[in-house]
Design goal:
It is a single chain. The chain is an alpha+beta fold. The protein folds into four domains: about 250 residues, Lipocalin (Beta Barrel), CATH 2.40.128; about 70 residues, no CATH class; about 90 residues, SH3 type barrels, CATH 2.30.30; about 70 residues, SH3 type barrels. The chain contains nine helices and 24 strands. Strands 1, 2, 3, 4, 5, 6, 7, 10, 11, 12, 13, 14 and 15 form a 13-stranded antiparallel beta sheet that branches. Strands 19-18-17-16-20 form a five-stranded antiparallel beta sheet, with no helix packed on it. Strands 21-22-23-24 form a four-stranded antiparallel beta sheet. Strand 12 and strand 13 form a beta hairpin. It is elongated. It starts with 11 loop residues before the first strand and ends in an 11-residue tail after the last helix.
Length: about 575
C-alpha cells in the first residue's frame, strides 16, 4: 500500500501507478516482529490528531478526533466505518509583515504569499464519513467517500495506517511510481444550485513522479514496537513548470498487543517550485490512540452536550410558539408605529424570533409600512419578521426572490401561446439546459421568437421560441411594466379576483389605504353610510371611511353595492 500522502489531494492529486514492493529481507541489526492490523467487530477506536503547518506569516493548526467502527472482519480483512474531521486554527506570527504589503512573489491584491496547496475545498476539515476495506497488512482494497486534507496530506481517514510487511522484518520499504495531476475540475463560480452551463473544464496537466517510504524497527518492548519512518516524494516539472517535493522523518508506534497504531510523531517539508519561486511549508503530524476510558468520557461529554442542545432547542421552540401577552403586544405595536428606529428594530427582532400559530392581522399591518423604510437594514428586518407572521407574504416574497435568478425555478404551467400578448421588460421563465430559469424579455421578433436575458446570469442573451417560455405566476412583481400592460400581458388574475370564486371568497381580500402604505387582510361585511365594515383575520370588526380606501377598494365596494338588474326574461 502506498503511503497515505500518495492518495488523491484535491486539485493536486497523486496516483500510484506501480505496485507497492516490500524490500528484500533485512540483514541489519534490530529486533524483527510480525506486525498485522487486528480489529474487533463493534469495538470503536479513536485517535486524537494534531497537524501543524508553519507558513510564512502564520501557524496553522488542524485538530480533532477521528473514529473507526469495524463493521465486519473476515480473515484479517476489515470493513471500517470512519467519521470525524479536523478544525482549523490560525495564529499570526509576531514577525509577520504588516497587512497590505505584498510579498515579493505570489498573487497580487490579497497580500498573501503564493501557496500552491490551498486550491480546493477539503472535506477532512469539518466532518467526513468514509467506508474503508483494509487488509491486515494495511492495503486499502476499497474506499467510499473522501476526507481530503490540505498540504498534500491525502485522506484523513488513511492517515493512521502504514504498510506492513507480510513476514517478520526489522526493516522494509515501499516504493511507487506516481502521477501528479493538476486541474481538470469545474472552475469555481457563483453558488448556483446546478452547474453553470457556461463553465468549461480546466485543462488537466500531469507529470510522473516517484515516492518511497522506508521503515526500521528501533525499539520493541511491552507490547509496543517503535518504527523509524522516512518518506520521500519527488516530481519533475509539469507543463506549467511546477514541481513538488516532500521529505520527512519521524517515529510511528504500533501496539502489537491490540494490533493497532498507537502514536505518530512525524515532521516533513512540502516544497513547491514554479520558475524561480520556491515555497516550503514545514509540517508536524501527530496522533495518538485514545484509551477506552478517554473514549468513554468523550461519548459521555457528547451525550451531555446533545441533551443540553435538545433542551435549549425545546425551550426556544416553546417560547417562539407562545402567544404574545396583551400588554407585550400593545408595547410592540406602539414601538412599530413610532419614529424611534432603535425601538422599531428591537420590536422587529422580537417578532422575528416568534413562530406564531395563527396570523395576527394587527401585527401584520404594523410591520408592512416598514418594508419601504429608507434604512435598508430596517426594511430587511421588517421583511424577515413579516415572513414569520404572514404566510401569504412569505410565499410571495420567496417567489419574487427566486425570480431574480440565477437558480432554476419550477415550471409555472402558464404557457405562452402564439397570440399571447408580451411586452419588452416582462419577467417570465425560459427553458434552457434542461430546466426553467427566470428571464426578462429584451426583444419581440417578427418570426414570433423572443429574445430574453436570464436573470442573475449577467447579460447572457438567448433567442427562444414561445414553446420554451412560460408566464410568471401572478404573484411575481413586474416592475418594468405599467398597470395596463400587466393586465394585457396574459397574466392570470390573482386569487382574490378569481372569477370562479364564491361571493364569500371574493369578499376576503387585502385592503389598502389611499396612501398605499397600510394594508390589512379582511372580509367585506357591508357599507354603512360613507364607511365600510370589515372583518379582520383575527375575527374583530373594523369600520373604515370609504374615502380613506384605495381606488381599487372603492371600486370593489361600488361593485358589491350595485344592485343586480332585474331580469326581464326570468320565469315567474
Amino acid at each position: 500500500m502506498p503511503s497515505p500522502s500518495s492518495f488523491c489531494r484535491g486539485i493536486l492529486s497523486i496516483v500510484c501507478v506501480g505496485l507497492c514492493v516490500a524490500a528484500s529481507a533485512v540483514h541489519a541489526q534490530g529486533p524483527a516482529a510480525k506486525l498485522a492490523y487486528r480489529w474487533e467487530t463493534g469495538r470503536e477506536v479513536a485517535y486524537e490528531v494534531v497537524i501543524t503547518a508553519d507558513e510564512a506569516e502564520s501557524v496553522e493548526e488542524l485538530k480533532g478526533v477521528v473514529y473507526y467502527q469495524p463493521m465486519s472482519v473476515n480473515e484479517g480483512v476489515a470493513k471500517l466505518s470512519f467519521r470525524g474531521g479536523l478544525s482549523k486554527f490560525t495564529r499570526a506570527k509576531p514577525e509577520a509583515r504588516p497587512r497590505g504589503i505584498r510579498p515579493p512573489f505570489g498573487p497580487q491584491g490579497f497580500g498573501a504569499p503564493f501557496d500552491p496547496f490551498q486550491r480546493s475545498p477539503f472535506t477532512g476539515l469539518g466532518h467526513a464519513t468514509n467506508e474503508i476495506t483494509l487488509t491486515a497488512q494495511g492495503e486499502v482494497q476499497s474506499m467510499k467517500g473522501n476526507s481530503q486534507l490540505p498540504h498534500l496530506l491525502g485522506n484523513l481517514s488513511l492517515l493512521v495506517f502504514e504498510s506492513l510487511p507480510e513476514e517478520a522484518r526489522a526493516e522494509w520499504s515501499v516504493k511507487n511510481g506516481v502521477t501528479i495531476s493538476q486541474g481538470g475540475g469545474r472552475q469555481a463560480g457563483p453558488p448556483f444550485f446546478r452547474p453553470s452551463p457556461f463553465d468549461r473544464p480546466a485543462e488537466e496537466s500531469s507529470t510522473a513522479g516517484s515516492e518511497s517510504t522506508d521503515y526500521k524497527i528501533v525499539e520493541s518492548a511491552e507490547g509496543k514496537v517503535v518504527v523509524s519512518k522516512t518518506y520521500k516524494l519527488t516530481s519533475p516539472p509539469d507543463a506549467d513548470g511546477e514541481s513538488h517535493e516532500i521529505s520527512g522523518s519521524g517515529k510511528w508506534t504500533f501496539n502489537t498487543a491490540v494490533g493497532l497504531p498507537e502514536t505518530l510523531d512525524f515532521k516533513q517539508d512540502v516544497t513547491s517550485k514554479t520558475g524561480n519561486v520556491t515555497v516550503t511549508v514545514p509540517l508536524t503530524i501527530k496522533y495518538r490512540r485514545l484509551t477506552d476510558d478517554e473514549l468513554t468520557k468523550l461519548k459521555e461529554e457528547a451525550d451531555r452536550r446533545l441533551a443540553e442542545m435538545q433542551a435549549k432547542a425545546a425551550a426556544e421552540k416553546a417560547e417562539a410558539e407562545a402567544p404574545l401577552e396583551p400588554a407585550a403586544k400593545r408595547a410592540l405595536l406602539a414601538d412599530l408605529a413610532g419614529n424611534d428606529q432603535a425601538k422599531q428594530r428591537a420590536a422587529l427582532s422580537q417578532l422575528e424570533k416568534k413562530s406564531p400559530q395563527e396570523t395576527d392581522a394587527e401585527i401584520v399591518a404594523a410591520i408592512r409600512p416598514l418594508l419601504t423604510a429608507d434604512d435598508r437594514s430596517l426594511a430587511n428586518l421588517a421583511e424577515r419578521a413579516l415572513s414569520k407572521w404572514s404566510p401569504d407574504f412569505k410565499k410571495k416574497n420567496d417567489l419574487n426572490k427566486a425570480y431574480k435568478g440565477p437558480a432554476f425555478v419550477q415550471a409555472s404551467e402558464l404557457p405562452v401561446a402564439a397570440d399571447t400578448t408580451l411586452f419588452v421588460g416582462q419577467i417570465l421563465i425560459g427553458h434552457d439546459t434542461g430546466a426553467w430559469y427566470p428571464a426578462e424579455i429584451v426583444a419581440l421578433n417578427a418570426d414570433g421568437t423572443v429574445d430574453v436575458t436570464f436573470r442573475g446570469w449577467g447579460n447572457r442573451k438567448s433567442t427562444l421560441p414561445r414553446s420554451r417560455l412560460q408566464l410568471a405566476p401572478p404573484e411575481v412583481e413586474q416592475p418594468n411594466l405599467k398597470t395596463e400592460q400587466v393586465a394585457a400581458a396574459g397574466q392570470p388574475a390573482p386569487l382574490e379576483e378569481n372569477p370562479f370564486a364564491t361571493p364569500d371568497e371574493k369578499a376576503s381580500r387585502t385592503w389598502t389605504d389611499v396612501s398605499g402604505r397600510f394594508k390589512i387582510e379582511g372580509k367585506y361585511l357591508g357599507k354603512v353610510g360613507d364607511s365600510v365594515r370589515l372583518l379582520r383575520a383575527d375575527g374583530k370588526e373594523l369600520t373604515v371611511p370609504l374615502a380613506k380606501l384605495s381606488a381599487a377598494d372603492q371600486k370593489f365596494v361600488a361593485a358589491r353595492e350595485t344592485p343586480e338588474p332585474e331580469n326581464p326574461f326570468a320565469v315567474p
